[in-house]
Amino acid sequence: MEQRALRAAIFAIKAVILAPLFAAYALWCALSGWLRLSGRIQGAKRLLAPTISCPSCGRENALAGRWRCASCQARYQGYVGRCSHCGAGATFFPCEACGISIRLVL
Ligand SMILES: [Zn+2]
Ligand SMILES: [Zn+2]
After folding, report:
1. Burial of residue 82 (number of CB atoms within 10 Å: 0-12, 13-18, 19+)
2. Residue 17 lies in domain
């Protein structure tokens, strides 16, 4: 009987100690998930726009046009982010004014 009471007391002490830690962890998971989701929405908005500005000279560069795939060397027309021949994804493309690489994925 005494051992049962002792086990219950230990369980209660553990619960009191661990509950705030679990609550803090849940809050951390929720906040970091929200920040990640917000960043992905901003990235999607950026890539869905018809143009993207150069970080160096500020020129607006069209995301649709004629491109050369860095993977299979094919020339393709359309959205810069995905080669229509081999399916390789592009992570950057050069600014048409200054040549600086513009990142597609942040
Ligand atoms: Zn530029
Ligand atoms: Zn390709």
Report:
1. middle
2. 1-48
